[in-house]
Amino acid sequence: MTQDTENYQESSSLFSTAKDDQAKKLNNLIARAMRLLGQRDHGEAELRRKLLTPPQPFSRPSSYKARQNPDSRRQAVPKEVEEIDPEQVEEVIAYCYQHDWLDDAKFAGRYISGRSNRGLGAQRIRSELTQKGVDKEIITQALEECEVDWCSKAYELATHKFGQPLPTEWKEKSKVLRYLLYRGFFQEEIQSIYRDFEE
Question: How many CA atoms lie within 13 A of 62 on its CB side?
């Protein structure tokens, strides 16, 4: 065997190892994306941010090991921090879109439904979705398409917190106002609960 042949075989094996390593990293990123999306819905920007963040560098002992040896936490051996390739993250995002695991419009609709059921108003929900990196046009469209009666939600929340009938004295009324503003309802919706729901 000549020196050139040996060099070629050595370099081709290194290339295939590098290729295998890249494929392994890509598969690990896909597995992370699946795990994150399996736990709860994510928007594209939020998923990208989480995938670009390397996993925690320390291995944690199982609860059984921790009970057997309370000092095991101090003995945890640091793992080597894995470098994340932004191009691979983009491939994973595209893969998630191809498999219909990721859709900002559907995510926004489900998020609005869930948060409104927890007593939050459109203003607060819009702010939260913006922080999660969802496009403003998608948020606006999702809020327009949702079938939430924000005035009724504000009334239900106010009567649950302050009782029925709602207070009419200015001091108590201002507490209702502040509470509903904090929850993300608009001024008009809050005023409507006194105007539209008077008995």
Answer: 3
Q: Hey, what's the torsion of the CAs at 166, 169, 174, 180, to 10 degrees?
A: 10
Contact status, residue 52 vs residue 84, Cβ threshold 8 Å? yes
- Judge residue 150's burial from the number of C-beta atoms within 10 Å of its C-beta, 0-12 exposed, 13-18 middle, 19 or more buried: buried
Per residue in 137-173, pLDDT (tens digit) is 999 999 999 999 999 999 999 999 999 888 889 899 9
Which residue has tokens 């009724």?
152
Burial grade of 190 (CB within 10 A; 0-12, 13-18, 19 or more): buried
3 state DSSP class of 80? coil
Classified as helix, coil or strand, 179 is helix
SS3 call for 69: coil
CA 30 to chain centre: 17
Q: pTM of this prediction?
A: 0.73
Cβ-contact 79, 58 below 8 angstroms:
yes
SS3 label, residue 139: helix
Residues 193 and 158: beta-carbon distance below 8 Å: yes
For residue 35, give the 3-state DSSP assignment.
helix
In the chain the domains, ranked by start, together with CATH numbers, are 1-101 (1.10.10.10), 103-148 (1.10.10), 150-196 (1.10.10.10)
